[in-house]
Amino acid sequence: MNPIAATYLSLAINITGLVLLVVLINYLTRRFVIEAFKSFTNKTKTTFDDFLIKTNFPKYVGQILPLLIINATVPYILINHQFTLGVVKLILKIYVIVLVVWILRSLLRTTKNYLKTREEYRDKPIDSYIQVIIIFVWVIGIMYIIAVLTGRSVIEFAISLGAASAILLLIFKDTILGFVASIQVSVNDIVRIGDWITFSKYGADGTVTEINLATVRVQNWDNTYTTIPTYSLISDSFQNWRGMQESPGRRIKRSIYIKQNSVRFVTPEDLKKFGKISLIAPFLDHRQKEIDKYNSNNNIDKSLPINGRNQTNLGIFRKYADAYLNEHSAIHKDMYIIVRHQAPTAQGIPLEILCFSRDKRWQNFEYISADIFDHLIAAVSYFDLKLFESPSGDDIRAFLDSSSAGN
Predict the structure, then answer these.
(1) Which of 18, 96, 284, 289 has the fewest CB neighbours in a 10 Å radius?
(2) Is the pLDDT of residue 1 over 60?
(3) How far is C-alpha 386 from the chain's CA centre?
């Protein structure tokens, strides 16, 4: 046989034998390591080692022994093939670097998953920090690989990157912005996982479920998802409802509009009628006695209702609304309860109701709000007041019919 052919045949046989041996050792080692890890995790109380298995840490560690075997035997197998030996050693060095990166990434992912199970870290943007560290590990790994391929030291290669720093900053602009934003969000406690936020610019209105390096994931109230760039949390304005969720009650702030021409002074007949309303009967009696005493002491001419002090149907209704809110079981009595006038508008006089419901859940909150305003809207007519409402087609038609009938 040709000596050259015999040499390459011997090389092929040796390499084939080495590959088969490594595959067998790799299989047995990984099985042993994985089974050992599973047995160990079943005996421990911590969940950290459980997450190690889920992130393939035993699988990566199990490849260390086959690599050691290859590194120890290859020089003998390829002793007469220096070029091939150099290529194989180069590949082994690169694979070792990649394997180290995989092991570190597995540890970081395990740390992230473990911390997210701890109560004190559940609302923190752990994903962002871990992603930045993983990126940093990969960058260092790539630098080592390039250094191995070029034959230069890592320090020399890092120094040469200084000239390309502007390009790197441009490439990693979003990553850098996201990282800085994550730190500011965490340090300033702007947003936590579990917060309900409203971000009109991106159509987000729901609960924050994830904060990572590039995006914030929000589950909207209709169970759709919206993703928001992380740096937008510090560059744009949004609404965080955490303060409401942590407070004892949720604010109800709405107005009903009273027609201005329905507001008038009350007569003795009105007082007698309003006195039958139990919520304000004591107030009316006490208030009217004060007014009568004042008018009597000052010899006020009451032939005109405008003279002296008088009560109005709107003022009495305002007091009724206040008493109704103070009696309502769903309203928090230790927080503000205000019924106030606002400046008159073209739609009438806004009578604003400001109070806080005990139940902060959205569905129950809306029910409580509707229940309050159902009652107040229905009660308006008992005080001879009218609500403003833009005329509808039926109103215009009725007006035209009445005008034509009059003619």
Answers:
(1) 289
(2) no
(3) 43
